[in-house]
Design a protein that fits this description.
Elements lengths: L6 H11 L7 E4 L3 H13 L3 E3 L2 E6 L2 E10 L5 E2 L1 H6 L8 H19 L11 E5 L7 H12 L4 E8 L2 H7 L5 E6 L19 H10 L1
Parallel strand pairs: 1-2, 1-6, 6-7, 7-8
Antiparallel strand pairs: 3-4, 4-5
Helix pairs in contact: 1-2, 2-7
Length: 208
């Protein structure tokens, strides 16, 4: 299975595969999703904005996500994982509050005081650079759904097969170019997968 050269190439290929949409709004999950979303927004001549999400980590091992939160939405937990770890949503309330603060900081950094574009009755395309567990994408899709859009499409270059299938319950359509069986991490499917900074995100949004 071939690799994507970088996020820009992946976004261009993804844009070609997306079905036609009428006057959509494109929302990217920062940071990496923004670079993928630029060619998608360009294809539709659509406004591009960010939908900020944060992972809710297991306190002793923050890289292990037990849930996620998106701006405008409520925390979405992996209840089975919480149970296996002997936790409840209430027991990670402190982590949720920390992530709410960081989420608010990033919203201010990326958008200032400007609100998200209105989503009610619109077609919305949510873009990320890949799906591993899908926790942040699920939180994002539920936050978008609460705004009562006409239709929601989740678009990613690559995703774990089981995650892609599970998220079909959260969106009207999921478009994934690659769903490899041997998926281990998003970055393994890109030749160049540099970490993006807040400044990179602002530059991409400005260019779009």
């Amino acid at each position: 299975m071939e690799l994507f050269a970088d996020r820009a190439e992946a976004g261009a290929l993804l844009a070609e595969r997306l079905p036609d949409a009428r006057d959509p709004v494109v929302l990217a999950l920062p940071r990496g999703g923004v670079a993928v979303a630029v060619p998608v927004a360009r294809r539709f001549g659509a406004p591009l904005d960010v939908l900020v999400t944060r992972k809710i980590g297991y306190p002793p091992q923050p890289e292990l996500g037990v849930g996620a939160i998106a701006e405008g939405g409520e925390p979405v937990f992996d209840l089975a994982l919480l149970h296996r770890l002997g936790l409840t949503p209430e027991s990670v309330a402190g982590v949720v509050e920390e992530e709410r603060r960081e989420l608010a900081r990033r919203v201010r950094a990326y958008r200032g005081e400007r609100a998200l574009p209105p989503l009610e009755g619109r077609e919305v395309i949510v873009v990320d650079d890949g799906l591993a567990t899908g926790g942040t994408a699920r939180a994002a899709l539920r936050a978008v759904a609460a705004a009562k859009p006409a239709r929601v499409t989740l678009a990613v270059p690559v995703g774990a097969r089981g995650t892609v299938e599970a998220l079909r319950q959260e969106a009207d359509e999921v478009v994934a170019l690659l769903t490899p069986v041997d998926f281990r991490a998003v970055g393994q499917w890109y030749e160049h997968f540099e970490q993006l900074s807040d400044e990179d995100v602002l530059d991409l949004l400005g260019a779009a």
